[in-house]
Design brief:
11 helices, 9-stranded mixed sheet, 327 residues, alpha/beta, UDP-N-acetylmuramoyl-L-alanine:D-glutamate ligase, binds alpha-D-ribofuranose
Length: 327
């Protein structure tokens, strides 16, 4: 998978979605029509965004997912492969169209997304098992929840067997009616090394808590060694080994579109985690460094419209971290 032995190897399992991005003066309320600006189509999907971000950040990245047998599917494959991501694990399925999302972006960059997973729902545990070698060859398996839970759980199991670290971005949170912990299977959390969520996802999974720290502690109780909550302009809060929560401030940027900022965070964190893991430096400093990489990448991603087009390159992240260090 990696031609350079020092290169981090990331396997991303997740969604592949064509985004229709529309600027809106404000978000529509139920029953209301709001006139939007001209639409733009951009490749997206949390899985594809994170795989492309990992490649741009210098990792050898591979993607496991499903597209439909249609023009969007072919365009997505070309866009992802064109970024140097190995797409051997991407299946073409003719039962459903390629996933599509409508992304409304308000002035100031806040977004609201309606995603139709479509072909992404055709990712089965059997297809995941066919990718056992790709998962086993990676340092980190990175997943989100826009694909069926059965596939995610199976991939986590294969990763654990192979000694591949599991980083789970539990977005979006499944409906709680599905059982588990706020809709996320308890066995999945138990196989997860690092859990990354935003504030509302943390609340949905943890259930009623007094504050975010208690939520982080509750989530850590299900198994992940590291639990991270991304808080947008308020930075990041995280806990390691069920210890006291730490904070990293947000990087100040002029945001035009926050779509994909979470994906950039997750990918940069995972790439840096893999690099520190290979160097046997996953101590408190190494984890803090990975969180800072995530925060820098997330901030950079808000400066460009669209999700995948906004994923930053390694040099940009390093430059932002250096400027902040005064170096
Ligand atoms: O995280 C951003 C992504 O979420 C968008 O690209 C959209 O496709 C949805 O999956």
């Amino acid at each position: 998978m990696a031609s350079n032995p020092d290169q981090a190897r990331l396997c991303v399992l997740g969604s592949i979605i064509m985004d229709m991005v529309v600027p809106v003066p404000r978000f529509a309320r139920p029953g209301e029509t709001v006139l939007a600006g001209s639409p733009r189509r951009h490749p997206g999907g949390k899985g594809a965004n994170q795989a492309v971000a990992a490649a741009r950040l210098g990792a050898a990245a591979s993607l496991i997912g499903t597209v439909g047998d249609d023009a969007d599917g072919r365009a997505m494959m070309a866009a992802i492969a064109g970024e140097g991501v190995d797409v051997i694990g991407v299946a073409v399925d003719n039962a459903e169209p390629t996933g599509t999302a409508v992304v409304s972006v308000a002035p100031g960059g806040e977004n609201s997304i309606l995603a139709s997973a479509a072909a992404n729902l055709r990712l089965t545990p059997e297809r995941v098992r066919a990718c056992r070698g790709v998962i086993g060859a990676a340092d980190v398996l990175l997943m989100q929840l826009e694909v069926p839970l059965g596939a995610v759980v199976e991939a986590a199991r294969l990763a654990r067997e192979a000694g591949t670290a599991v980083v789970l971005n539990a977005a979006p949170v499944p409906e709680a009616g599905n059982g588990g912990v706020g809709g996320v299977p308890a066995e999945l959390l138990a196989m997860t090394d690092v859990l990354i969520v935003n504030e509302s996802e943390a609340a949905a999974i943890a259930g009623p808590v007094q504050d975010l720290n208690q939520g982080l502690a509750r989530l850590a109780g299900y198994g992940p060694r590291v639990v991270i909550a991304t808080l947008g302009e308020r930075g990041v809060r995280y806990s390691v080994d069920r210890g006291v929560a730490s904070e990293v401030e947000a990087f100040a940027v002029e945001a035009v579109d926050s779509t994909g900022a979470g994906d950039a965070f997750v990918a940069a964190f995972a790439v840096r985690w893999a690099e520190h893991q290979a160097a046997q430096a996953l101590d408190a400093m190494g984890i803090l460094d990975a969180v800072c990489w995530g925060a820098a990448a997330g901030a950079l991603a808000t400066r460009t419209a669209g999700a995948m087009p906004a994923m930053p390159r390694r040099g940009e992240v390093v430059g932002m971290l250096r400027r902040t260090d005064g170096g």
